[in-house]
Design brief:
single chain, mainly beta, 2 helices, 8-stranded antiparallel beta barrel
C-alpha cells in the first residue's frame, strides 16, 4: 500500500503526458521563417515571416545592401486543428490570396504553406526556419549578364537544432 501511495504521482504524470497534448506539437510553427534558403545566389531581398506565440504574424523582407529589416504587414493567425494554422489577409484585393494554411513541412526546419484563393487551396510552397540575410560576393556583373553577385546567409547564426519528433 505504501509503494502505491508513493508511485501515484508518477503514474498520474505518466498518464497526463501520454494522453495530454504534446508541448512540442503546440509550438511547431513558432519562430522566423524565410522564403530563401541559405546558400542560394542572386537575391536582392529575403522575405521573412515571424509567427509569434501571441497570434501575431509579421510579414516583411530583409533588403540588401545593408540587410535592412522592413516589415510589410502584421496579421493574425489561428489554429485549425493540431497540425495547421491559418493566416487571414483581410486587406487582399479581389481575386488575391485570402489566406495561408500553414502545416509542418517535410522536416522540422520547414513549414508547408498552401495559398487559399477564392476559398480553395492552390499553390503550395515551403518556408525555411531561420532569418536569412543577403551577402555581397564582391563580383561586379556586367550589365545584362547573370553572374553570382550575392549569396543568402544566416543573419546572425543558424537557428538552434529542431526536434524531428
Amino acid at each position: 500500500m505504501h509503494l502505491i501511495t508513493r508511485l501515484w504521482p508518477l503514474m498520474l504524470l505518466s498518464a497526463a503526458t501520454t494522453c495530454g497534448s504534446d508541448p512540442a506539437n503546440d509550438t511547431w510553427m513558432l519562430g522566423t521563417f524565410s522564403d530563401v534558403q541559405v546558400g542560394q545566389l542572386n537575391y536582392q531581398s529575403a522575405p521573412f515571416y515571424d509567427i509569434l506565440e501571441d497570434g501575431s504574424f509579421v510579414k516583411g523582407k530583409i533588403v540588401h545592401p545593408g540587410n535592412v529589416r522592413v516589415e510589410t504587414g502584421e496579421y493574425r493567425w489561428e489554429r485549425r486543428g493540431e497540425d495547421e494554422i491559418e493566416v487571414l489577409f483581410p486587406d487582399v484585393e479581389k481575386g488575391g490570396i485570402e489566406a495561408w494554411r500553414i502545416s509542418p513541412g517535410f522536416d522540422c526546419n520547414t513549414v508547408r504553406v498552401d495559398y487559399i484563393q477564392r476559398g480553395e487551396p492552390g499553390l503550395e510552397t515551403a518556408l525555411y526556419r531561420g532569418a536569412v540575410c543577403i551577402e555581397a560576393l564582391g563580383m561586379k556583373c556586367p550589365s545584362g549578364s547573370n553572374c553570382d553577385s550575392t549569396k543568402a546567409v544566416w543573419c546572425d547564426e543558424p537557428p538552434p537544432p529542431c526536434d524531428e519528433k
